[in-house]
Amino acid sequence: MLEPSTPQDSDVPTDAQARALVEKMTLEEKVGLMHVPMASFPDRPSEAIGSAAFHPGIGRLGIPAIQESDASLGVANPNGIRPDDTSTALPSSLSMGASFDVESARRCGMVVGAESCAMGFAMQLAGGSNLIREPRGGRNFEYISEDPLHTGLLAGSAIAGLQSQGVVSTIKHFAVNAQETGRVMVSSDISERPLRESDLLAFQLAIEHGRPGAVMTGYNRVNGEYASQNAFLLSQVLKGQWRYPGVVVSDWGGTHSTVKAVLAGLDRQSGEQLDEEVYFGDALLAAVREGTVPLERIDDAVIRLLRALLTSRAFDPAARPGPVDRDAHAAVVRRAAADGIVLLANDGVLPLAKGTKRIVVVGGHADVGVLSGGGSTQVMPAGSTKTEGSAIAQMELPRVYHPSAPLDALRAALPDAAIDFHDGDDQEAAVAAARDADVAVVIAEQWSTEGRDQRDLSLPDGQDDLIAAIAAAAPRTVVVLETGGPVLMPWSRDVAAVVAAWYPGSEGGPAIADVLTGAVCPGGRLPVTFPQDTDQLPRPVLHDPAGTASNPGEPRHGYFSEDYDIEGADIGYRWYERQGHTPLFPFGFGLSYTTFDHRDLEVSQDGQGRVRVEVTVTNTGPVTGTDTPQVYVTLPVAADARCSRLAGWARVRLDAGESRRVTIELEPRLLAVYDVLAPGWRTYPGDYRVDLRSDARTTLLSGNITLDGGLRGP
Length: 714
Known about the structure:
Blueprint: H1 15-23, H2 27-32, E1 35-36, E2 53-55, E3 66-70, H3 93-99, H4 102-119, E4 123-125, H5 148-163, E5 168-174, E6 186-189, H6 192-197, H7 199-210, E7 214-217, E8 221-222, E9 225-226, H8 231-241, E10 247-249, H9 259-264, E11 269-270, H10 282-289, H11 295-309, H12 326-340, E12 342-346, E13 358-362, E14 370-371, E15 385-392, E16 395-402, H13 406-413, E17 418-422, H14 427-436, E18 439-445, H15 463-473, E19 477-482, E20 497-500, H16 508-517, E21 560-563, H17 573-579, E22 596-605, E23 611-619, E24 625-627, E25 630-634, E26 645-649, E27 652-654, E28 659-665, E29 673-675, E30 680-683, E31 686-693, E32 699-707, E33 710-712
Parallel strand pairs: 1-11, 3-4, 4-5, 5-7, 6-8, 6-21, 7-10, 13-17, 13-18, 18-19, 19-20
Antiparallel strand pairs: 2-3, 8-9, 12-20, 14-16, 15-16, 22-23, 23-28, 24-27, 25-26, 25-31, 29-30, 30-33, 31-32
Helix pairs in contact: 1-11, 3-12, 4-5, 4-12, 5-7, 12-16, 13-16, 14-15
């Protein structure tokens, strides 16, 4: 069982400690802490573990070396630089989002934090919190959902869990970093009110709940200005209105100036080898000496960095834990992976009956392992299999299968069944085997990676044709999707069951088998809408990736803008409601092996103005299962908010026949709109419709509440 640890001793380091250190530092030492190189190359300093960044310490002041690692899904091993690495790979962040479970997110964060701390890292470049505006985005698997409340609460919980182990976590990529195509050139253009009510709200909630020690800026521009030197984002909102006390670091190769960036609020240049120059080195020293940059701004930046590090174990290496409990970590991620699996369709073929005699498993490298997403977040557990993938300037991006094969797991779970495997390359042979089997399980895969978006939402390499052919021959066909986001399913009405397993991590094979066999009753819910086709999207056609630079460290060309005011704050399910589109599967959707009843909805407001929803939930089916009642609110007309929005949810695990009275407290900012002129969150007086739903489109019970108008801070 993982337990929180207390960094250093019982006395939490104070702001005064950071200030006292800064007072003793020379200007050169201060500026030296404000830029950092990558450390994932063979010629790295001997003291460097081999990771995203290394900065030598300042011995005379007792400031230790700073070692930093990617990312949200485990301790990454860039370019395989640590040959004996045995890190645990978490399920993708989308899988975590599908669980709707803040406690599971915290436990997963603790796994990453414990392993990172044990290896000697002070900072983990985790906390992916961008909203999924573009379902073809190459890094969607690193993010949690399309909804700001859902993303904010789960990201905050994961960050808090990670930092409980004595490691600083970032939150990233601030902000509106919605695509990989032209990510170092694109401007995400959006007006302030919808920006505040969507992407910024997700970050605000995650920062409040997780209290990350660092914020990492995005590569992209926001309204024409690079995020790393965007004074509105960094100084006005983050450090000003939100009073964020931590350090703001650039993404690796994402710094573009000296004076402009530091005065806008950037505290550190990261991955300096990928920038055109070391902007925060000699150029910054000269700017201070010339009076262009005040010394107070330098002190503020270094204090912010030290303040974060003093909460970690970096200053007390002897207090780091010993070898981590790999079995305990495996149990956490297996359960998390199973809880994130979403049952999308089922005509009764699942769970697989114990008496099933013959099963054929087709495709997906199911005899090797489970697919993972590529890029800087890539984790390489022992036994991983690498195949050709992609590359960006600073690293190779192999396609990696984590070593828990679904084929082996199914054979272990169903020892009396004859389970054969076909890789799917010979479609005729696979179809013949499926025709003779009781059940055909097709593992379909879509590889996503940092540095490029998907061309479309179709399964690649003829997999749609393979599934259709098998389904035509075998009516009991089950499709398991290992993908980095939504995909189109032209065969969805022809198969018996569909399961979204995402990228399920180190224990993905057993987790998939647990759900298919009924050892775990599926309780996942979609964190992102699956469209019928790309014509339903706000931007049906993606910008041509050939016309723009997409990665740091490469020659820059092809500036362009994406108009996010098209949907504004109405991302995902809100967009579908606004446009009257019917998706293939809506946000929040998921089936179960049991059934639930919901009764006696009550909506009330307490003396402090908090709105609560109460409902009685009963498991009316045959097995223990998890229900996720979701509360959506519709604001008065005066609020000029066109769509309902998720304002709260509960995750309820009930035995067969069990009932429970559930209370859901609604987030006040989801009952309000952002008033740019005030500024602040304004609640309009009037009647608010409150719907209890099983997903974003299916209402179970409805109520209403009348609220007074009011304004709260930004």
